[in-house]
DNA sequence: TAGGCCATCTGGTCCT
DNA sequence: AGGACCAGATGGCCTA
């Protein structure tokens, strides 16, 4: 019999199981510590990360090992760890709800954790690109930070406007002034003519 | 309090 | 095989 280390449910009623996968403390200065942490992780792969001490506690104990089985075929059959209370009189429905179980061992835990770190790093690079993009779209001085979706939409509109100005060969400021003066009557196909962008145009320094 | 936005985790898929 | 990428789920924070 294989060494079944630990089981956990993906059932809706298994909330207590997921409670251990709590989110990282949002006040944690993640960005500044990530790089040094990544280096630490590379130097000491397999060890628990600092997140374990910040509320991102793993459901697995240190002794758990590889993902050896994904038992979705025979709920309740041979999936209970020794001493893990698998009630013999468990109702059939409850047994069915326990169908999706994972047997988890160390390498899976380590791989999953490493993947989480890579994913966070990837998202950080995406976010830094968004920050860079925010610096290149017109915003109001008093405006709060643009959301990601607003940043993308505004960038699209702004690029379209710049392209039109280039194609027209006109002076940018006079082009904008003319457009605003005419209420964009002649710009029915101007995809940049969004309320967001037009409102910001007055803040652009064209000199 | 509901909805928007976001970070994170996760498993699946694709790529090298 | 391992990493990159992606989308869904979840929960926290903030604001109207």
UniProtKB/TrEMBL annotation:
Residues 110-162 form the BHLH domain. SMART domains: HLH (SM00353). Signal peptide: none annotated. SUPFAM superfamilies: HLH, helix-loop-helix DNA-binding domain. InterPro entries: bHLH_dom, E-box_TF_Regulators, HLH_DNA-bd_sf. CDD domains: bHLH_TS_ceHLH13_like. This is BHLH domain-containing protein.
């Amino acid at each position: 019999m294989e060494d079944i280390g630990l089981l956990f449910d993906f059932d809706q009623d298994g909330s207590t199981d997921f409670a251990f996968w709590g989110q990282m403390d949002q006040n944690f200065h993640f960005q500044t510590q990530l790089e040094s942490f990544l280096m630490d992780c590379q130097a000491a792969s397999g060890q628990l990360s600092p997140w374990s001490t910040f509320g991102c506690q793993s459901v697995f104990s240190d002794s758990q090992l590889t993902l050896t089985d994904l038992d979705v075929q025979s709920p309740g059959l041979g999936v209970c760890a020794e001493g893990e209370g698998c009630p013999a009189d468990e109702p059939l429905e409850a047994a069915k709800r326990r169908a999706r179980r994972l047997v988890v061992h160390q390498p899976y835990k380590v791989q999953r954790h490493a993947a989480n770190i890579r994913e966070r790093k990837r998202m950080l690079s995406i976010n830094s690109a968004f920050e860079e993009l925010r610096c290149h779209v017109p915003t109001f001085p008093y405006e709060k930070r643009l959301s990601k979706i607003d940043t993308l939409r505004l960038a699209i509109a702004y690029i379209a406007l710049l392209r039109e100005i280039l194609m027209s060969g006109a002076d940018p400021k006079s082009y904008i002034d003319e457009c605003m003066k005419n209420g964009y009557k002649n710009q029915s196909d101007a995809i940049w003519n969004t309320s967001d962008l037009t409102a910001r145009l007055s803040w652009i320094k064209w000199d």
